[in-house]
Amino acid sequence: MATVRICVCGDEGTGKSLVKDTFVTTKIQPTLPQITIPPSIGTLENVTTTVVDTSAIPQERASLNKEIRKSNVILLVYSDHYSYERVALFWLPHFRSLGVNVPVVLCANKSDQNAKTSTEQVVEDEMLPVMAEFKEIDSCIRTSAREHHNINEVFFLCQKAVTDPIAPLFDSKECNLKPACVAALQRIFYLCDHDQDGHLSDQEIRDFQIKCFGKPLDDLELSNIKETLEKHSPEAVTEKGLTQSGFILLNKLFAEKGRHETVWLILRTFHYTDSLSLHSSFLSPKFEVPPHSSAELSPAGYRFFVDLFLLFDKDNDGGLTLRSLRPHPRPPHPMDRNRLPRIHRPQ
Fold first, then answer.
1. pTM of the predicted model, to two decimals?
2. ∠ CA(153), CA(156), CA(159), 5° rounding?
3. How many angstroms separate the CA atoms of 286 and 276, rounded?
């Protein structure tokens, strides 16, 4: 079970304490102490969330710094022009000075007092310029604690910033997926392309959908996905199906639209860690053979390797050339003799 510790920061009078308190009580009341939210109440399953309020007064600076260092995500709240200016002039530089490397969720509170200003205008005029300067800002949102507007959503963003971080996947400056993410997705495409024709057929896409998400994909949804990809790139989809570049583009669109949890679900289904390396338990699975016993392939295992060999033996000459194997993605740590399980054979 994941644990998320949120440090709520911001100037006095921004309503940051009310944002925290109304999330739990749904009503305005005196400030609550540190609270821990179990998964049954939180917005994400299997995530226990601790929310800690802080004070901006100089006398509490040591306590503030302590809580910032203990957190794994910061909720930074502002509510007016003065507190907004302090976001870039004080708060974000202060986080950097402490040497913390955690995501920041930027929250414009008290939207009920600025009803004449649209959310789109606030995002364009206030949030985007700060996000462009400070890459540690993971996401931004507009809230009203008094009207309980977007309160659940802001804590969902905080949880997602920890459980499904965007930074390892997407380069916001280049507006592209990062190389390690692309390499992982290329390997996943290769594994899902069962007939190795360089395309994912409709059936292969449906199998991929079931494997990753546990839900079937109907014809209309599949058609909508293809139409969306074709609008962005004519090479994304051909008569044979979804190309590798189209598969990468689909995941890029997920990341751009803030749906990076979808990309993470795909990666984790194929045994990738948060650092985009393969789990050691996948690369070196535990395989114990009792003493004085032997291990051998079952008929099904033998058939699997024969079918795999025949799939790559394109010229049917009974052999695989190094050239035919070299272009295919491989795990970063191929198994060698020292990594294979020790087999005890009977005397």
1. 0.77
2. 155
3. 21
Tell me: pLDDT of 346 over 50: no
Class of residue 229 by CB neighbours under 10 A (exposed 0-12, middle 13-18, buried 19+) = buried
- 107 backbone dihedrals φ, ψ, rounded to 5°: -125, 120
Indicate if the alpha-carbon torsion angle 95, 96, 101, 107 is positive or negative. positive
Q: Name the H helices within 134-218.
A: 151-163, 179-192, 202-213
pLDDT at 203 over 90: yes
User: In which residue are the tokens 């004085």 written?
Assistant: 292
Q: In what order do the strands lie in the sheet containing 47-53? A: 35-37, 47-53, 2-10, 73-78, 104-108, 137-142
For residues 134 and 131, give the distance between their C-alpha atoms in angstroms, rounded to a whole number: 5
Amino acid at site 21? D
DSSP 114: G
- β-strand 176-177 against 104-108: which pairing, if any? unpaired
Report how far residue 67's alpha carbon sits from residue 87's, in angstroms, rounded to the nearest whole number.
18
Whether 64 and 56 have beta carbons less than 8 Å apart is answered as yes
pLDDT tens-digit series, residues 219-274 = 999 999 999 999 999 999 999 999 999 999 999 999 988 888 999 999 999 999 99
**Cα–Cα distance measured from residue 88 to residue 57, given in angstroms and rounded to the nearest whole number:** 18
**Closest to 183 in 3D by CA, of 96, 248, 88:** 248
Strand partners, 48: 3
CB 276 within 8 A of CB 267: yes
Region of residue 180 (left: phi > 0; alpha: psi -120 to 50; beta: else): alpha
